[in-house]
Amino acid sequence: TFDGTWKVDHNENYDKFMEQMGISMVKRKLAAHDNLKITIQHNGDKFHVKEISTFRTLEIDFTLGVTFEYSLADGTELSGSWILEGETLKGKFTRKDNGKELLTTRVICGDELVQTYSYDGVDAKRIFKRG
Ligand code: MYR
Fold it and tell me: Is the CB of 115 within 6 Å of ligand 1?
């Protein structure tokens, strides 16, 4: 289950991914150490995610398959939705400023939650441990 609190442990190719997203070097350096912690609770199709980082604290509610809005810490606005395919949460979001797609997945691997990101040909991962 995805439920519980997850703290980011390490990243793979996240700097390149953020660069592709157009994020400045200074912001990327900060974002690489954002101490992201997410708490996921879900009940059927309804998810509640609490996100805490050095940038902000916010709470997000979404329903699988239902489009919602989400803003990144730098203000970039996305619109999209999550679905569950087997054991994998698959998110398909679109940037409102340029129409490009950001794909993301969440999957539990052993005692880790692995989130993948894909944007404009660049893939990255953030690996979380229970916290
Ligand atoms: C959630 O389930 O946590 C809320 C919705 C997440 C939407 C997509 C997340 C993409 C985050 C990309 C980070 C990019 C930093 C450049």
Answer: no
